[in-house]
Amino acid sequence: MKKHGILNGPLNAALGTLGHGHLVVIADCGLPLPASAAVVDLALVKGTPRFGDVLRAVLDDVEIEGSLIASEASGSVIEEIVRAEQLMPELVAHEELKALLPSTRLIIRTGEATPFANIVLRCGVTF
């Protein structure tokens, strides 16, 4: 049994395949997901798990070199959560963020029900 870190098997497996430059999305429960996307659905009920909890767990496991959030989230609790994790996200229109979804390596769906609670993470490299 794992002693710490992410316990969800499918999420662990998907994170283990990531490489430099891959895009990972942490999404709220309302984001329309493309049928072709690799999705790990963690949503249990509305509000669980929370966006911030999933973001923190992923950041503990994955090296990140950049991020994007919707400009519509500017000044919101979502931007506060992202900045509290010491990410300095680029702001893009929500429609532009959604247009990136088919090119992502992984989408992690949360139960978050706060508007615009989505982030695109660009994987870095540890060496």
From TrEMBL:
Biological process according to GO: D-ribose catabolic process
Cytoplasm as UniProt keyword: yes
Record carries keyword Disulfide bond: no
GO MF terms, alphabetically ordered: D-ribose pyranase activity; intramolecular lyase activity; monosaccharide binding
Assigned keywords, A-Z: Carbohydrate metabolism, Cytoplasm, Isomerase
GO cellular component: cytosol
Entry's EC annotation: 5.4.99.62
Pfam families: RbsD_FucU
Residues passing through the membrane, by range: none
Catalytic activity: beta-D-ribopyranose = beta-D-ribofuranose
This protein's name: D-ribose pyranase
Organism, as annotated: Arthrobacter pigmenti
Lineage of source species: Bacteria, Bacillati, Actinomycetota, Actinomycetes, Micrococcales
